[in-house]
Design brief:
This protein has 3 domains: 93 residues, MurE/MurF, N-terminal domain (Udp-n-acetylmuramoylalanyl-d-glutamate--2,6- Diaminopimelate Ligase, Chain: A, domain 1, 3-Layer(aba) Sandwich); 185 residues, Hexapeptide repeat proteins (UDP N-Acetylglucosamine Acyltransferase, domain 1, 3 Solenoid); 30 residues. It is 17% helix and 28% strand. It contains 5 helices and 36 strands. The N and C termini lie far apart (83 Å).
């Protein structure tokens, strides 16, 4: 069902320049949008796409609105990207039948578990004994919530998520390993979203904690006893080893790794594929990626890196010998 620009602006605000009766049939990128679509520009680097777009309406900042093609409707917003995010929510709500709360017939919920009446438990989910699911939360298909784990309010857990599998704990006993029972649980706050096939392990003695507003992408591994602070976001394939503490409002790029028992301050941004090997005590942007090169050059550089400690010692010796 289409939405008129008048309905969009009434719901989300912004300043409309153009025909309020124009009906929008869908959302699309600037380069492929047509007259029935709405699009947006938030990054000035893509001004050329704005100038060339055939979209019926664009969401833009006041500074960039004059670059829209003549005759194109505009919604002027302080933060076009945020406006677009809220528009996607409005569109989904308008286009999709409201999901009714309840427990799917194929789900398995232990009698001792607590599921709020407003929550939705999807097909083939498992909620084990003592677990608690908060109001308005949605567990999509094949989600597993282990015993005594807690999911807060308005959380979304996508397909295949596992909450509360045993943490990786074993004590060496000669040539074999003795299992350390994981006696903690997982506590997830409110408004958390967890992507498909992400795993969050239960703690060994104390709980693994994911605070309010955290956003986790697909295929992330969170080890036992980790604590992730409010509104932190991690992209796909991040790995966080046991007992690491990550502060509030951090971002961690795809494929990055945080080693165990480290502390990451609030306000830290970690680039994709970075391996964090020491605690970070100050907010900022941190990167630790060995640059891509052709294989022969990479091997030469890698060989040189192995000699850095020897070169350092030689330089120190030369400095001592040449002191006045």
């Amino acid at each position: 069902m289409p939405l008129s620009l008048a309905v969009i602006v009434e719901a989300l605000g912004g300043t409309l320049v153009g025909n309020p009766a124009l009906e929008i049939q869908g959302l699309a990128p600037l380069e492929s949008a047509q007259g029935q679509h709405i699009s947006f520009l938030s990054n000035p680097r893509y001004q050329a796409q704005l100038r060339a777009t055939h979209a019926g309406c664009v969401i833009v900042s006041a500074a960039l609105q004059a670059m829209a093609p003549e005759g194109t409707a505009r919604i002027v917003a302080d933060n076009p990207y945020l406006y677009f995010a809220r528009l996607t929510q409005l569109w989904r709500k308008h286009q999709t039948a409201e999901r009714k709360p309840g427990i799917h017939a194929t789900a398995v919920v232990d009698p001792s578990a607590s599921v709020d009446a407003s929550a939705f438990i999807g097909p083939l989910c498992v909620v084990e004994q003592g677990a608690r699911i908060g109001p308005g939360s949605v567990l999509k298909s094949r989600v597993t919530v282990g015993e005594d784990c807690v999911i807060g309010a308005r959380c979304i857990l996508h397909a295949g998520v596992v909450i509360g599998a045993d943490g990786f704990g074993f004590a060496p006993d000669g040539e074999r390993w003795e299992k350390i029972e994981q006696l903690g649980a997982v506590r997830i706050g409110d408004d958390v979203e967890i992507g498909a096939n992400t795993c969050i392990d239960r703690g060994a003695l104390q709980d693994t904690v994911i605070e309010d507003g955290v956003k986790l992408d697909n295929l992330i591994q969170i080890g036992h006893n980790v604590r992730v602070g409010r509104n932190t976001a991690m992209a796909g394939c991040v790995g966080v080893a046991g007992s690491a503490t990550i502060g509030e409002h951090c971002t961690i790029g795809g494929g990055a790794v945080v080693l165990g028992h480290l502390t990451i301050a609030s306000g830290v941004n970690i680039s994709a594929a970075t391996v964090v090997t020491k605690s970070i005590t100050k907010p900022g942007h941190y990167t630790g990626v060995f640059p891509l090169d052709d294989n022969a050059s990479w091997e030469r550089n890698a060989a040189t890196l192995k000699q850095l400690h020897t070169l350092r010692d030689r330089i120190k010796t030369l400095e001592k010998e040449n002191k006045p």
